[in-house]
Amino acid sequence: MRVGLFVTCLVDLMRPSIGFAALRLLETAGCEVVVPSTQTCCGQPGYNSGDEKSARVLARKLLREFEGCDYLVLPSGSCAGMIRVHYPTLFASDPDVLESIQRLSARTYELTDFLVNVLKIEKIPGRYSGSLTYHDSCSGLRELGVQAQPRALLSKMPGVTLSEMTESTTCCGFGGTFAVKYGDISARMADKKCEHIVKSGAAAVVAGDLGCLLNIEGRLRRRGDLLTRTLHIAEVLAGENGECT
Predict the structure, then answer these.
(1) What is the pLDDT of residues 10-67, one digit of tens each?
(2) Which CATH class is domain 2-117?
(3) Global pTM?
(4) What ranges do the domains of the chain cover?
(5) DSSP string of 163-188, one letter each residue
(6) Range 130-238 has CATH code 3.40.50
């Protein structure tokens, strides 16, 4: 099985360990993984800001880079949602490209969804010992239905104690450009999320989108919480989190 791994620009620039963790998970499951060195952005920031022209340029580039793969997998529900849900809309009036885009969208998966529903993995390569709470990122949850999948994978790790927070499906306040346009509202939403995380009693909060994790971590630290860890689900599953044995 030839799997294209789109690491996302945020992971590449801010926490490459997530990309390497995703790579380890896919390779351990027996996939031939392709990671084009030319990959950049899926075009979501431009698309969300109304710049559909630049989004189409990036979408065409991504299509060329991954068209030879059986599947396209991303450690991000947000970027996976952009490709799977919004790319077909982006090219709805371009019949010359639409069919290729639809084929790409149909074989695009968020990482945990792919591990559970396509690869159906039973053995988790990483080890983790401690309590976790899970934040459901908006795009993965609402556009792709990713909620049970990460929890199913965590349940296969004997050392993990999952402590569900209140309102785990409520937005953390990031929302890409939303946090810039509506800073005060975003900060209040982040505060509520941090309160729920702390009350869960977990030593770490886990999510499937780095944007959410960066936003949550920033707010936790500003509130004086220097202990609660923020981990991507790929890092926990692959053991790339400082807790592996």
Answers:
(1) 999 999 999 999 999 999 999 999 999 999 999 999 998 899 999 999 999 999 999 9
(2) alpha beta
(3) 0.95
(4) 2-117, 130-238
(5) -PPTTTTS--S-TTTHHHHTHHHHHH
(6) yes
